[in-house]
Specification:
The complex is a heterodimer.
Chain A lengths: L1 H12 L4 H14 L3 H24 L7 H18 L5 H30 L3 H21 L33 H19 L1 H11 L1 H6 L4 H28 L10 H11 L4 H25 L4 H40 L8
Chain B lengths: L1 H30 L7 H19 L2 H25 L4 H20 L24 H6 L3 H19 L1 H11 L1 H6 L4 H27 L11 H11 L4 H23 L6 H20 L2 H7 L13
Helix pairs in contact in B: 1-6, 1-9, 1-10, 1-11, 2-3, 2-4, 2-9, 2-10, 3-4, 3-9, 6-7, 6-11, 10-11, 10-12, 11-12
Classes of the chains: A mainly alpha, B mainly alpha.
Chain lengths: 347, 307
């Protein structure tokens, strides 16, 4: 709610009528023709990546590199699609899926390796690798993989129909990735709440000392967290290029890897919460697009909305915690004032 | 040859200065026990604020002040979240970066494609005209000198003054600082504010001296590199100079190589600074004991006075 109010105020500051803007931003995208399908298409990568980040963050492992893993996944799967366009879909597409996952895992694995072997901070290394992946993508699509018939645009040939993500509902862009996203969220939830592994992740995050005493291998958990979140990001990248985009270009991600961090936190690092959060932020992308078209606002509106949202989420989180704790402190302070001699400084 | 060398030196200095400014600010923040990952966002906000103010007032120097104030005010957002509301510092810093890049892009949309006058170079008659040494030592813009003064100042303050001692105490043991009667949160607020102002300066340098125009996400990861520099320096101010100039040289080298048309795809060359950051981080961090010894003990831990 607060987010909506502030975003609304921002619209006002840019001289747009408040209600109309909010209507365009938040409501119209859903009432459009196949708006819901588009919402699913936008939410799928966010949910896939978000679940991975949520699992890793539970163990206090900060994977900021999902953007890079997404790109590498797309490159690996997309490369396969370009290399053998005539392979039957039933063979080719599963291979692409595997390639996408493996690509993302490998890229996330670099971060895990550097963290485990060399103690390098995973926030910084994974972020730096994002830039490297983006540059690699630009190199490939403007160099060796460029479509010779593409009028010199930095993009590859359009994938053959065999390499396209199966569409679920005719006439929309709703593709297989949406199903995968939901399945992954459920699996993520089951793993986190019903397996030893999930327990280890949670203990590692909330009480690292206890995890050490219990003999949980923190190295193993770092590897696991980075491989899983990297693989999921790679999968998301593959679905995006084989589904809605259909080729590799320099702009295959509108910042999904970063937005998914917000999704993970908004979803309270809970895989099922991530689904809801993913849908909400997918709406912000759609809203951003329609705001751009109808109100001539820059696409950065989406970023603003997301930032404000996360800001209030963290603030409200703290307020909730703070009030509980504040009440406790108040009660004990009251007791102390009554029973403890005032000369003893309360420490 | 001499002209070429001088030009290379000058370009390296211009490339390194924003890194040095931002890293110096972040070093102080981290010394106070706060890990603010929002440097990139604060730099972007500083860049657009600086640019807008310079354009409105017609004076790049006032623009620099604008950038500084913009960065400092923006860092308050982090302080409110992480210090007052006790949110975890890592996500709070990420908010700042995500929000900052969005906000700066939104404000900056109106300024894309406009070019303005560069921050003036110092010109001391006689001295600035000496070949090589003249332009390098006496012909820089004011922020280059400020970046060095800031490093020396920060180093002296941290090491020799009461303020520095308190700041380090708060970063190494917030509880002890609190027990001694210092206002931990207040001190951390001030440190973060300083970090924001320095990041804002660095951003303003990007839009007023490195470039003389604004473009979306123009800092291109420099805020993150500044964060890595602080680790590189193992929290010692003077090492920041070495780090910033090392990275500045690598960044400049990538432009330089492209200019020479060497037969490497330009993307590989552009990736060099990022790869170098990873490599340097790995080398520095692999000595676990040293990192543990030199990092402020309370880095990244929220503090809440319980009594």
């Amino acid at each position: 709610m607060l987010t909506i109010i502030v975003t609304g105020l921002l619209f006002l500051m840019f001289g747009k009528p408040l209600l109309q803007s909010l209507d365009v931003f938040l409501i119209q995208p859903l009432t459009n023709d196949n708006g819901l399908a588009e919402l699913g298409v936008k939410a799928a990568p966010l949910i896939l990546i978000g679940v991975g980040i949520a699992l890793a963050s539970r163990a206090n492992i900060w994977n900021i590199g999902a953007e890079g893993q997404y790109i590498v996944g797309a490159i690996c799967g997309g490369g396969l699609a370009l290399a053998m366009p005539n392979t039957p879909a039933l063979v080719l597409y599963p291979m692409m899926l595997v390639a996408g996952v493996l690509g993302g895992m490998a890229y996330g694995g670099i971060v895990a390796l550097l963290r485990v072997q060399f103690n390098a901070n995973e926030i910084l290394t994974s972020l730096m690798l994002n830039y490297v992946a983006q540059l690699l993508l630009i190199y490939l699509v403007s160099g060796p993989w460029r479509d010779p018939k593409g009028f010199g645009f930095p993009q590859t040939a359009i994938f053959s129909p065999n390499a396209a993500a199966p569409v679920l509902v005719e006439g929309t862009r709703l593709h297989l990735g949406v199903v995968f996203a939901l399945v992954v969220a459920v699996i993520g939830w089951l793993v986190l709440s019903h397996t030893i592994l999930g327990f280890q992740l949670r203990v590692q995050g909330s009480a690292p000392r206890a995890a050490r005493f219990a003999g949980f291998s923190d190295k193993k958990l770092v590897w696991l967290a980075m491989l899983v979140s990297g693989g999921l990001a790679g999968l998301a990248g593959l679905f995006e290029v084989s589904g809605p985009i259909g080729q590799l270009t320099t702009t295959i991600s509108p910042g999904y890897g970063y937005t998914a961090i917000i999704v993970a936190f908004l979803g309270r690092l809970h895989p099922l919460g991530v689904v809801l959060a993913g849908l909400l932020l997918a709406l912000s992308y759609l809203g951003g697009e329609s705001a751009q078209i109808e109100l001539a606002l820059p696409s950065a509106v989406t970023g603003i909305f997301q930032g404000v949202l996360l800001f209030f989420l963290l603030a409200c989180d703290a307020l909730i915690l703070y009030r509980i704790r504040g009440a406790d402190v108040g009660r004990f302070a009251g007791l102390k004032a009554r029973f403890v001699s005032p000369k003893v400084a309360p420490l | 040859m001499i002209v070429l060398l001088t030009n290379i030196m000058l370009s390296v200095i211009v490339t390194s200065t924003p890194l040095l400014l931002a890293a110096t600010g972040e070093l102080v923040v981290e010394k106070a026990g706060v890990l603010n990952l929002g440097v990139e966002g604060m730099m972007l906000v500083g860049a657009i604020c600086g640019f807008a103010v310079a354009l409105k007032t017609g004076s790049p120097t006032i623009g620099v002040l604008g950038g500084m104030i913009g960065g400092a005010l923006f860092s308050l957002l982090f302080s409110v979240l992480a210090l007052s509301f006790l949110a975890a510092q890592v996500p709070a810093g990420l908010v700042l970066t995500i929000f900052g890049s969005g906000l700066s892009a939104l404000i900056g949309a109106a300024y894309v494609g406009i070019s303005i006058e560069r921050l003036p170079h110092l010109a001391i008659p006689g001295l600035s005209d000496i070949p090589i040494i003249g332009p390098i030592l006496f012909g820089e813009d004011i922020l280059v000198y400020i970046s060095f003064v800031a490093v020396v100042g920060v180093s002296l303050v941290l090491r020799y003054t009461h303020v520095g001692l308190v700041l380090r105490a708060v970063g190494d043991s917030a509880d002890a600082g609190h027990a001694l009667g210092y206002d931990v949160i207040g001190i951390r607020y001030l440190a973060t504010l300083f970090g924001g102002a320095m990041a804002g300066l660095a951003g303003a340098y990007m839009s007023l001296a490195y470039n003389t125009s604004w473009s979306e996400n123009m800092t291109a990861g420099r805020g993150w590199i500044a964060l890595a520099l602080v680790v590189f320096s193992t929290w010692r101010p003077f090492w920041l100079i070495a780090g910033a100039y090392l990275f500045g040289s690598i960044m400049y080298m990538s432009f330089f190589l492209q200019g020479f048309g060497i037969a490497i795809p330009s993307q590989f060359v552009s990736a060099l600074p990022y790869i170098a950051t990873v490599v340097v981080l790995v080398i520095i961090s692999s000595n676990k004991a040293r990192i543990r010894m030199s990092a402020p003990a309370c880095l990244g831990k929220p503090f809440h006075a319980t009594s």
